[in-house]
Amino acid sequence: MASDPERPTLSSLGKVGKSSGEVTEAEEPLLNGGHNSESYSVLAAILPFLFPAFGGLLYGYDIGATSCATISVESAELSGISWYNLSSVEIGLITSGSLYGALIGSVLAFNIADFLGRRRELMLAALFYLVGALVTTFAPNFPVMVIGRFVYGVGIGLAMHAAPMYIAETAPSEIRGQLISLKEFFIVLGMVAGYGIGSLLVDVVAGWRYMYGASTPLAVIMGIGMWWLPASPRWLLLCAMQGKGNLQDLREIAISCMCRLRGQATAPVSIQVDEIVTELSNIGEEKEATFGEMFRGKCLKALVIGAGLVLFQQITGQPSVLYYAASIFQTAGFSAASDATRVSILLGLLKLIMTGIAVIVVDRLGRRPLLLGGVSGMVVSLFLLGSYYLFLDNLPVVAVVALLLYVGCYQLSFGPIGWLMISEIFPLRLRGRGLSIAVLVNFGANALVTFAFSPLKALLGAGILFYGFGVIAVLSLIFIFFIVPETKGLTLEEIEAKCL
């Protein structure tokens, strides 16, 4: 098709608002010189993080609240229902229903992410959260309750896909790592809130209904907040470059959105937008992605890095270690350990503190040092736990130290950095689909480990099982050392140009 001489081209848009001296290296802006420091207002940069992070808060809250809700719903005196006599399979469906919904949400995101955009996908996630919570809260019978759990899980899948993308694409590169890591902090904060509210309501008649109902105001706030926030400027520019709208109009909308996101006047923001356009033009983002491209070239490398990280995040034993927390503390003589909820709250507070440390240092130390150091600590703790169950059962202090070391090191490394890296590493035009595959791997591995834990424990014993997790952690350390790049301080476009 012949080009329209009146229509602005990608290259001309990339030069709008720049003097000739500022585009002398436009041929290879990323490989030759890097980017100018982004100017931004801290307040303006934090607000676009806050509402997407509510998606993580609601995910964490569901984990904490469900652990208490299952106790409430099984009680003949306190459940407030006639169908409380549930089998272990039915309780398992209540517990894991949101996880299976999240898997479906991840598959759904693969097809709709680039069509809807990050902002509208998060609005849709908030709607699923709200409907799922309401259906669960007012469920008249067990099948309806499971449907509600599944619908809520679809919201989890969409939110955990779109939230890191939206934050990554709207945050200034200097604090991008901190803001995306803060989303993990919000997940843990939600877990602690779920355990806390659940422990307060577990002795209330029909308390499980109130536990699930408590999440509805947050879902409403998330939906309204995402409606108020601007669209991702990078998504708008991608649409412009792929011919899905008028280039000049979408550029102006992107500048307007960037003004709100940075809290800056139009002139410096327009320069930032034009730099992004020029950078995207030079790394070939004009072509619309095909399914086959997911498994070739740059995206294949990004897929190996991202999916590998979230796979190791799940199969290095985190759910299994936490499963033993109450019994480990009980063996060591801690009175609070008789109450699994109290143990969960204590560990949740430790996770909050360690995640907070990761948030503070991630953009100073970088991603690789935190991953290598944290996973090394996990290796030590897993072998200590295995040794405790095989040889050192008369030294419960070893198990307590190993448990705390594992939780702390996980929250310094795989916890926040896994989600951070998958939001950074995929090229823009493949980011929606690439991230959905990574999230699908994450939830799929979570479901597999949760399902396989009890049979493996019965077959191998706890000691051998923890040794096995330790070996997997060593493999993950090798993977990180040789495969995972450092992305600290780079723009998303620079990561594509230099790391893939």
Question: Could you explain how this protein is built, in words?
Answer:
- Belongs to the major facilitator superfamily. Sugar transporter (TC 2.A.1.1) family.
- One of its GO terms (molecular function) is transmembrane transporter activity.
- It is a multi-pass membrane protein.
- This protein is mainly alpha-helical and 500 residues long.
- It folds into 3 domains: 189 residues, Growth Hormone, Chain: A (Up-down Bundle); 51 residues, no CATH class; 206 residues, Growth Hormone, Chain: A, CATH 1.20.1250.20.
- Helix content is 76%, strand content 0%.
- It contains 22 helices and no strands.
- Helix 4 runs antiparallel to helix 5.
- The chain is globular and about 65 Å long.
- The N terminus is likely disordered.
Concise account of the structure shown:
It is found in: Membrane. Helices cover 76% and strands 0% of the residues.
Helix/strand-derived class? mainly alpha
First CA to last CA: what distance?
32 Å
Order of helices and strands: HHHHHHHHHHHHHHHHHHHHHH
- As a percent range, the share of helical residues equals over 70%
Q: Tally of extended strands?
A: 0
Estimate nothing, just give the exact number of structural domains: 3
Q: State the helix count.
A: 22
The CATH topology of the largest domain is: Growth Hormone, Chain: A
Q: Looking at this structure, what is the CATH superfamily of the largest domain? A: MFS general substrate transporter like domains
Compute the CA-based radius of gyration.
Answer: 24 Å
Low-pLDDT stretches: 1-34
In CATH, the architecture of the largest domain is Up-down Bundle
Largest sheet composition: none
In terms of DSSP E residues, the strand content is under 5%
Global outline = globular
CATH class of the largest domain: Mainly Alpha
Organism: Tripterygium wilfordii
Keywords: Membrane, Sugar transport, Transmembrane, Transmembrane helix, Transport
Region (Disordered): 1-32
Family: Belongs to the major facilitator superfamily. Sugar transporter (TC 2.A.1.1) family.
